[in-house]
Design brief:
The chain is mostly helical. The protein has helices at 4-23, 29-44, 53-69, 73-81, 83-106, 111-118, 123-131, 137-165, 189-208, 214-230, 238-253, 258-293, 297-304, 309-318, 323-349. The protein has one domain (4-44, 54-349): Na+/H+ antiporter like fold (Up-down Bundle), CATH 1.20.1530. The longest helix is centred in the last third of the chain and has 36 residues, at 258-293.
Amino acid sequence: MNWFEPMMITIFLAFLGQWVLSKLSFPAAVMMGPVFFIGGFQIWSGSLPQLPVQFVDVFQIILGLSAGAKINKNKLAVLNKIAIPALLVVIWTVVFTLLMTIAINYYSSDLITAFFSAAPGGINVIATMALAYHSEVAVVSTYQFVRLLVILSVVPLLAQYIKQKITHSEGANAPELEIIAAEPAANNKSDLLKKYGVGVLGGLLLTILHFPAGGIIGSMFGMAAMNIFLGKETVFPPKVMQAALIGIGASVGLEFSPLMAQKIQQMFGQILAFSLIIVISNFILAYFIHRITRWDIITCLLSSTSGGLNQMLIVGDELQANTVVISVLQLVRLLLIVTCVPLVSVFITG
């Protein structure tokens, strides 16, 4: 089998997987479709080769640009006003991730896999980082996906239940924040060229220098710096992000094998148990934030849950929670993970 035929099979399975799961309204369908379809093919035949490492570098840069596009003067102004709950999110994330890493590693001899499995950065970011290290990416993505399924199954229902129980006399809305509105999204070619140019160059530079997860970090900070400097938001093209997620899903799916599938099957009970523990820890964090700030419990719950920025914003908008607070605190967690996880990974791998 030459290189062309397996590449075409990989591309076909990746797009077929995301299309099928999207039609079924499956969680994280764009990424998990390729994981399931290509992973299943690998378990059945194991004949498809890994994608070149340069592909993963490109996916990292795209993810970094997408994350950096969300950072602007507006978010920084809000962050300054909610510094205490943001600090609590940071401390809680660091401490609990380390505790869960130790717990997961007790059942596994691979510390780096345990660390990526425990990290609450979202399946797309963590899976992309795990691909760059000598970790068992299939195990990591299974941990992250099961956690996402638990979160998306439990949190919206719980939030809806709480919403029905809350009375207006209890103060259902978070305290009003004086928001400095960002300017409309930059839509002239010159600004966009500067932003994407600086972001891509930042990602390429750190990648060439072999900085841990340099593609994500360099492009994210490059894009964010230009957003702040130019004083405008950037709406990242969803089709580009979709293509990157399909590629990440394909890369993860190619890591599967019959032996890896057997190992995941044996570990599934503990994967589910640890996922439930992590979700419960999110609820505890939400309670502490609520006690400190007196914000409504739904805003606190969606700000604390490590289910991904976009997913929590959708639920928050439906339940009339404070989406500004949710977006900023979720962004704080994302920035922490993107900047700290690569450095800790280097320390673990020696």
